[in-house]
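Reply to dn_fold:

You asked what the input looked like. This is it:
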Amino acid sequence: MASSTAGAARSSRSVTYDIVYVGLFAVLIAICSWISIPATVPFTLQTMGVFLAVSILGGRRGTLSVLVYILLGAVGIPVFAGFTGGIGILLGNTGGYIIGFLLSALAMWGIEKLAGNGWGVQLVSMLIGLLICYAFGTVWFMVVYTRGNGPVSLAAVLGWCVIPFIIPDLIKIAIAMLIGPRIRKYANIH
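and this is what came back:
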């Protein structure tokens, strides 16, 4: 009986830590979104927050952090770039990139499940996650923009929404790769 009680206490503690970590990283992603330079698609640190969440917390908790972040924004809490929130942001031109964060995290989680979470695997998963976010967000932007403003070329959307972000996003990946494993180790996150 004592061993089952100790196991239940350990399990309850683990769930509590999971909830705290997920919430903490949802807030981190929000803070990263507030650090913003306005543009057609604002320059923010959101992608770095997503990469850090999955890198530090692992696929399951990192993905849940991204989901919580998006849900907070969807209900109107101003967690998106420019201190905005609401379903209208998600349904707008740039909403696909925000939803793309979740798809990125899911892809990174899937790669972690298949290949582990070694340094090289994490790097590849972040790059693939970034490509997925770009692809989904770009298609979304084109559809929504076309409905409201008329046809737009893929080249134009890539010029507005992807090309200016490639170098900054690669730098964010490098930073996440540099500090993520250290934070995970020193914070003793398992």
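The CA atoms of residues 23 and 161 lie 29 Å apart.
Hope that clears it up.
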